[in-house]
Write a structure and sequence with these properties.
Mean pLDDT: 80
Number of strands: 12
Largest sheet: 5 strands, mixed
Subcellular location: Membrane
Order of helices and strands: HHEEEHEEHHHEHEEHEEHHEE
Distance between the termini: 52 Å
Number of domains: 3
Oligomer: single chain
Strand order of the largest sheet: 2-1-5-4-3
Catalytic activity: ATP + protein L-histidine = ADP + protein N-phospho-L-histidine
Strand content: 15-25%
Organism: Salipiger bermudensis (strain DSM 26914 / JCM 13377 / KCTC 12554 / HTCC2601) (Pelagibaca bermudensis)
Keywords: Coiled coil, Kinase, Membrane, Phosphoprotein, Transferase, Transmembrane, Transmembrane helix
Number of helices: 10
Protein name: histidine kinase
Low-confidence stretches: none
Length: about 450
Amino acid sequence: MLNSLSGRFLILTTVFVMLAEVLIFVPSVARFRADYLTDRLERAQIASLALLADDMLDPDLERELLANAGVYNVALQRNATRELMLSSEVPGPVAESFDLREAGPVTLMHDALVRLASPEPEVIRVLGYPSQQAGQLIEITMEAGPLRSAMLDYGVRILLLSAVISVITALLLFLAVRRLLVRPIKGVVGHMIRFAEAPEDARRIIKPSASVKELREAEEALQSLQTQLAASLRQKERLAQLGGAVARVSHDLRNILTSAQLFTDRIEMSEDPSVKRMAPKLVGSITRAVSLCENTLAFGRAEEPAPVLTQFNLAELVNEVLEAERLAIDEHDVSLSEDIPATMQMRGDPEQIYRVIGNLVRNARQAITGTGRPGEISVAAWADDTEWVIEVTDTGPGLPPKAREHLFQPFQGGVRKGGAGLGLAIVAELVRNHGGTLQLARSDESGTCFEIRLPMGEMG
């Protein structure tokens, strides 16, 4: 209960209402004290009227009048003459005097708090204006104990009333908040739970119904999120089914094409001029088809294995990549170079780093040969204090806008005709597994540059 929104709101409401009542309590008690003293002044003035009617009063009658007024002495000033109207024995010296004629709100509140904090019996003097303009000043002496008792009694009644008001107000606010806020929020939470049980079911998407503006905005945002998520899950399910089918087809097709490659080797040995002219194109087509099948199968795995970290020489690994690529190109068409310190050591999975650089170099080579013009591919690397940086640069035609938009997305970022766009997706995943980043540094008419950053960190 206390951990719920409505429970905490109930507690806070009660606390704040009580705080407001406490702030009201001090002025109320101060006002009560001022009214109490004014009433004593009026009673004393009425008692003094008996003396004005008869100059000689019986001592017993005088004591009775003072007892009824609740005072010891009464002095009245009229026509610039001050005289003691009624008097009796005072039990002790006057401890303090209070002039109600010039007392402001701050003074009244201060005097009230001091009186509440002073339990000792005291005699006090009070001065004020007579009622009905019966003079210029009236002065009385009285016991402070009854005043304090009356103030305490009044204060207790104020606090009890405040507590009742606080409880009723908090309860009403609790019910209002529960109906206007808590219940709609619970409804939204319920929709989220039901949607989480079957996110593909479009019938479980929330329909905004809240009347409160902020809650309705939250429901609309949740509806948009659930709609997008449901559509994304349906698309991923279709892609997963399609991926499984493509992987099986690619596996069988790769075996068939591998066998076809063996026959093309013999066809190339033919002396027939037309066969010699067509054989290279057939070999190239079959090679590209085999590469596509291998990439599809590689991407179709659930995930790439975690990198096995070892220390290796990056320059030697890059040289192996470039030597393998030189077997597939005419050096007069594409030149390969590297700019890596011969002693540069890095920590990573050499097999996966080989695949990363190999894919980027192969993509660059295919982009250049596709233009029919000569070009250059270079691999550079260096290390700073926190990471290793590898750049693969080519002088090809650059990437088209569509390829840049979906660069690392499978089946969408392909540049070469007949390609599936899997190479860069695989490269990006391998780099992420090393905790690094792969980004397109630049791509224009002068060429393309990919940048790999691998943090040293725990692997350094």
